[in-house]
Write a structure and sequence with these properties.
This protein has 294 residues and is α/β, with parallel strands linked by helices. It has helices spanning 2-9, 19-23, 48-51, 97-100, 127-144, 163-172, 209-222, 246-249, 266-272, 275-293, and strands at residues 82-87, 103-105, 111-113, 148-151, 177-184, 195-199, 239-242, 255-262. The strands form two sheets. A six-stranded mixed sheet has the order 4-1-5-8-6-7, sandwiched between helices. The protein has a two-stranded antiparallel ribbon with strand order 2-3. The structure holds zinc ion (ZN). Zinc ion binds at residues 12, 29, 31, 88-89, 118, 127, 182.
């Protein structure tokens, strides 16, 4: 159980981190801008107060304002397309520190951990559960539109796969488009909103970068319909180019990441843990894909 606690407090794509994050490199995320290559396995915080700052109360979350259910996009352009959906992290990562801390070549001269635990809310809602829920609903919408969906993971019972494998799955599927779904965990006061992570050109991915950037812009434009605002703490107008992510550096097919919101912000979290927002997030991603394929 103590390892599960660790999994719930780790930063995801944050530019800042908790004291626990800084002392525990295993909590640094594939998306983290402050990730470490240390092999140190996770260790539990010594007291519960380490994990739950006094300013955060699980019972103080505001009532979310959920946007009405978005129209399901059934763009004819989605029919027959191969789309890879990569739900970030996995439920067993925290209990497999040796495996997820193994170093891998993330491309572009970067070496980093196989995967990370991801982040979560202070009261125990994990990022890996959020990402899987959105991924599953997105899969349903895309399949209804005639797309061929490949899921990187179907449940939260395993660990990994490594970021190298997450990229390889898309490449070997010859995906027309791939997306990695995440939630952030940033402790900067007032930091909230979503942002899209797009690739920069590397030796492996150069041919797909323009297409990924185009999709990233469409996704940035579609996602505010969920009620989640554009990030006020990372990126520029909701988009951030990253050359340190294995999932993007090693992908030969157009791929972006989305940080759907900040799970350490009460307003964002209230949205993110609601089934209605998760469905809307899936619909917004599908709408952007429909626009991408015309
Ligand atoms: Zn993540």
């Amino acid at each position: 159980m103590s390892l599960l606690v660790v999994a719930l407090i780790g930063g995801c794509g944050s530019s800042t981190s908790t004291a626990a994050d800084r002392s525990d490199p295993a909590l640094a995320s594939e998306e983290s801008t402050t990730s470490s290559s240390s092999m140190t396995p996770p260790t539990a915080p010594s007291t519960s107060s380490d994990a739950v700052p006094a300013t955060e109360s699980p019972t103080a979350a505001p009532t979310p304002t959920i946007a009405p259910h978005l129209p399901r996009p059934l763009s004819p352009g989605l029919a027959g397309k191969v789309i890879v959906i990569d739900a970030g992290h996995d439920g067993g990562n925290a209990s497999h520190p040796a495996e997820i801390n193994q170093l891998v070549d993330a491309g572009n001269g970067v070496t980093k951990a196989c995967d990370t635990t991801g982040t979560g809310s202070f009261d125990g809602y994990p990022e890996y559960a959020f990402t899987l829920s959105v991924a599953q609903q997105l899969a349903g919408t895309l399949r209804a539109a005639g797309a061929q969906v490949v899921m990187v993971r179907e449940d939260s019972s395993g660990w990994g796969p490594c970021i190298t494998e997450r990229a390889r799955i898309g490449n070997e599927a010859h995906a027309d488009l791939a997306i990695s779904i995440h939630g952030d965990g940033n402790d900067t006061p007032g930091a909230r909103g979503f942002h899209v992570l797009v690739p920069v050109a590397t030796a492996q991915n150069a041919t797909m970068v323009p297409a990924a950037q185009r999709f990233g812009t469409l996704l940035r434009d579609s996602f505010p319909a969920t009620g989640m605002p554009v990030s006020n703490y990372l990126g520029t107008n909701g988009i951030m180019a990253r050359g340190d992510l294995g999932g993007l550096n090693l992908s030969t097919v157009p791929k972006v990441f989305i940080e759907c919101g900040n799970m350490h912000n009460g307003d964002d979290l209230a949205l993110m843990r609601s089934a209605a927002f998760q469905q809307n997030a899936a619909d917004a991603i599908a709408a952007a894909m429909g626009s991408y394929f015309g």
